[in-house]
Amino acid sequence: MKIISVFVGLLALLLVDVAMAAGAVATSVTGAVSVQSGTAAARPLRQGDSVTQGDLIVTGAASSAVLRFDDGEITALTSNSRLQVTAYQYNPSNNSGNVFLSLISGGMKAITGLIGRGSPNNVAYRAATATIGIRGTEVDIVTDGDTVVVSVDSGKISFTYNGNTVTLDAGQGAFGKDGKITTAAASQLFSNPAIANLAPVLGSVAALTAAINMSTGTEGSRNETFSTPSSATSPTAPGTGSGGGGTTVSSH
Amino acid sequence: MRKGAKLSISAAAIAVFGVSGLVAIRDGVVDTAVNTANIEMLTWGASGAAPGVETQRWVREDLEWAVARVSDDPVTHELLGTLALRGLSKPDDARVAYERYRETLQMRPSSPYTWMRLAELKYRTGDTGAKFEDYLQRAAELGHAEPEIQREGAFLGLAVYDDLSAPARAAVDTLLQAGIRRDTPEMMRISRRRGRLDVTCGLASGMASGIDSKSSQSCQGTE
């Protein structure tokens, strides 16, 4: 049993590694941001927290969040956004993996990382009914759940909407609405009255650049582990030894 | 001694040895099952890959099988708790983790690691109130010299530092100071990730031992 106890210590250390092996760290959180894992209740997302595959991130009013994934991918969310990490797997030994993020509503800026550089076909974003593929890209995406707007800052994307696909280079944009894709220069995109309601959101996405630079510029490696091995000798603390208190846990 | 008495004593001895042997075999089999499950869980960390649903299922089933046969082993309870804590994908996972850690603490109340796990569970379920602080303080009291407790306490404590009560904040400060003395760069990394270099640098500046030059550079600008 002692051997097992030793293993438990290592296990505790490594379990956290597992949780952190494929996911992201919230490098910046402002306002009210929550994260929901599976069907569990949503909990506040704080700077430094990990986000993993399956998590749903929700930003409130006047809030934003910047996520840095293990492969270096940056995803920033504007206020009133909902993003699900539908799939994220990353193997750092060969920089392979896949990324699939779903923007349910709101706005996001995505800057692809090592997976996108090495295997661009393995990176995709979904916004409402549209799918965005990338080619080494910095892209802004906005949706209200129906209309989808994209603007390419660098690189190239494929934008698929209602069964049609267009390829957009840096400086170009497009929106899908009422089953139809409309393309335009990114700078002129939001003068189009058809998507006037989403212009402020895209403006917010553009403003995320500063937050990204601030939050990721000093971010160190996230290889550090924060674990609690459970095997080592247990010192006796005041109040927890024989006859002392603290031996039971009260109601949850 | 009469022959009958000798036979009775022999039979009793055989029975005692037999039962003891069976118990030993049972404990051995259970230990093996727990050990196997534990090693499997270790490989998840080593490979960096998330385990499949089926793998998680058999690990959980083996541990539950083991705990059904040997219910007074805190290790098995703690492993089951950690499995649930690691997932937390269902509302029930938090309850399971809590129950398992409670069982563990009833058998091993002075483990700072289990108290810290409870604090982590509270944090990860978004409940950073009085119980979270209580668990954090107990872990700090019991294990302030343990590196893992320092790391986790700093990681959790700095996340909600401004919201902590004075005693809980003092506990976090104690862990941070112990961590700074042991491994300053590590504490700086944790603090940076939490965006709270100001706290760690403030504590470091008041320490007689001082900090290394690289960490000192990191602190510049936070003053």
Describe this structure in words.
The complex is a heterodimer of chains A (252) and B (223). Chain A is an alpha+beta fold. Chain A is 17% helix and 44% strand. Chain A has a 15-stranded mixed sheet that branches. Chain B is mostly helical. Chain B has two domains: 53-109, no CATH class; 112-223. The N and C termini of chain B lie far apart (89 Å). The model of chain B has no long low-confidence stretch (mean pLDDT 87). At the A-B interface, helix 1, strand 1 and strand 3 of A face helix 1, helix 3, helix 4, helix 5 and helix 6 of B.
Shape of chain B: elongated
Number of extended strands of chain B: 0
Average pLDDT of chain B works out at: 87
Count of all domains of chain B: 2
Rounded to the nearest angstrom, the distance between the terminal CA atoms of chain A is 30 Å
Low-confidence stretches of chain A: 13-21, 218-252
Name the helix and strand elements of chain B from N-terminus to C-terminus, one letter apiece: HHHHHHHHHHH
Arithmetic mean pLDDT of chain A: 80
Q: Which stretches of chain B are poorly predicted, pLDDT < 50 over at least 5 residues?
A: none
How much strand content do the residues of chain A show? 35-45%
The percent range for strand residues of chain B is under 5%
Task: Please estimate the helix content of chain B.
Answer: over 70%
Oligomer: heterodimer
